[in-house]
From TrEMBL:
One of its GO terms (biological process) is meiosis I cell cycle process. Belongs to the DNA mismatch repair MutL/HexB family. The keyword DNA damage applies. GO terms for molecular function: ATP binding; ATP hydrolysis activity; ATP-dependent DNA damage sensor activity; mismatched DNA binding. InterPro entries: DNA_mismatch_repair_CS, DNA_mismatch_S5_2-like, HATPase_C_sf, MutL/Mlh/PMS, MutL/Mlh/Pms-like, Ribosomal_Su5_D2-typ_SF, Ribsml_uS5_D2-typ_fold_subgr. The keyword DNA damage applies. One of its GO terms (cellular component) is MutLalpha complex. This is DNA mismatch repair protein S5 domain-containing protein. NCBIfam families: mutl. The lineage of its organism: Eukaryota, Fungi, Dikarya, Basidiomycota, Agaricomycotina. It comes from Pisolithus microcarpus 441. Residues 216-355 form the DNA mismatch repair protein S5 domain.
Length: 361
């Protein structure tokens, strides 16, 4: 059973980037407004995520890192309402199984400024609990020696650590690019890397109050925003329920729900794009998804752009704002691939809104 657990764990946390993503998502789920990510030796030695969120309630200590333990669902019904937020209770248990274990320091509002330090073993069991340590409200999760229980994977991580670290930074850039819309608040994000000789390198610092354009400039400089325009469009998608009804009953009526997409995109003129698709960030309700990987939506955007702008990829930051009750998104097991129904409507809206004088509709 132990082995099985380790294999399935590998699907939630597949690399350094997903480890970081899961930890930061937990901090966001806890309502944090400030998050600090500390890498030691690019994450090889440890990854630490410090937040000012709700903290973990004492009644949750025992179970916190057991498989399928989650405090985020009260009924099965809720599953259909959730988009990219954590809800499977797999991240912490995976991280335990795939490392030398976790250390968690946490305090809720009622315990602060005193908190508790929890030591969790590789099986997700609470090994020790030390009360009365200084801790403001929030949680610090430290993962030590990622992938050490899997020597081959560990070797691979060591060999490619610079690249893996860059991938982790990419997802952190995505969090730094929220706010994408009025609906989402930004987060104060600080990222540092302490390398072997003790030197600490500041990687990223955002204060969470800038406009999207200003955040992008802070990351990449003013020139990066040349030829970039605001993205703001809406399109209709069928709701999950109506898709099912259409398939089951052949019912012609298909109620739709409106999805708004906001962000930034390269102007649809020749030469305005980039030679690589490295600056393409997609969000659902302010949560990044599928960073750095080709998703259906990402392919669609590139396709529209490519129709008249040979060999170029747009700079694009796009937040899909959806009502979660009309959940039109299916989440894959790794929570990183999202399928949009009526994706053609999005492509059409993009053409009509941004390329209508250039492409033949
Ligand atoms: P999930 O996010 O799917 O619920 P996780 O394994 O990621 O599962 O986390 C398990 C539980 O641990 C969460 O449901 C939450 O109660 C708690 N938790 C994890 N990280 C934090 C955090 N930074 N702040 C508060 N609670 C947390
Ligand atoms: Mg989670």
């Amino acid at each position: 059973a132990h082995t099985v657990h380790r294999i399935t764990s590998g699907q939630v946390v597949i690399d350094l980037q997903s480890a970081v993503k899961e930890l930061v998502e937990n901090s966001l789920d806890a309502g944090s407004t400030a998050i600090e990510v500390r890498f030691q030796n690019y994450g090889l030695k440890s990854i630490e995520v410090i937040d000012n969120g709700s903290g973990i309630a004492p009644r949750d200590y025992e179970g916190i890192a057991l498989k399928h333990y989650t405090s985020k669902l009260s009924s099965f019904e809720d599953v259909s309402r959730i988009v990219t937020f954590g809800f499977r209770g797999e991240a912490l248990s995976s991280l335990c199984a795939l490392s030398d274990g976790l250390t968690i320091a946490t305090a809720t509002a009622s315990e602060a400024p005193m908190g508790t330090v929890l030591e969790i073993d590789g099986n997700g069991r609470l090994k020790s609990q030390k009360a009365k340590v200084a801790r403001q409200r929030g949680t610090t999760v430290t993962v030590t020696n990622l992938f050490r229980p899997l020597p081959v994977r560990r070797k691979e991580l060591e060999r490619n650590i610079k690249r893996e670290y860059q991938k982790a930074l990419t997802i952190l850039h995505a969090y730094a690019l929220v706010p994408c819309s009025k609906e989402n608040k930004g987060v104060r994000l600080t990222v540092t890397n302490q390398i072997e000789n003790g030197r600490k390198v500041a990687q990223l610092k955002t204060d969470g109050t800038l406009s999207l354009r200003a955040s992008a400039i802070a990351l990449w400089g003013t020139r990066a925003l040349d030829n970039v325009t605001d993205l703001d469009l809406s399109f209709e998608v069928e709701t999950e329920k109506s898709v099912l009804r259409r398939l089951n009953q052949g019912s012609a009526d298909s109620p739709t729900t409106s999805v708004r997409v906001q962000g930034l995109v390269s102007k649809f003129v020749i030469g305005a794009g980039r030679t690589t698709n490295d600056r393409q960030y997609f969000f659902v309700n302010g949560r990044p998804f599928n960073a750095g990987k080709a998703s259906i939506v990402q392919k669609a955007v590139n396709e529209v752009y490519r129709t008249f702008n040979v060999n170029q990829a747009p700079f694009v930051i796009a937040d899909f704002v959806l009502p979660t009750h009309a959940c039109d998104i299916n989440v894959s097991p790794d929570k990183r691939t999202i399928f949009l129904h009526s994706e053609n409507n999005f492509v059409l809206a993009l053409k009509v809104g941004y390329a209508s004088d250039l492409v033949d509709l």
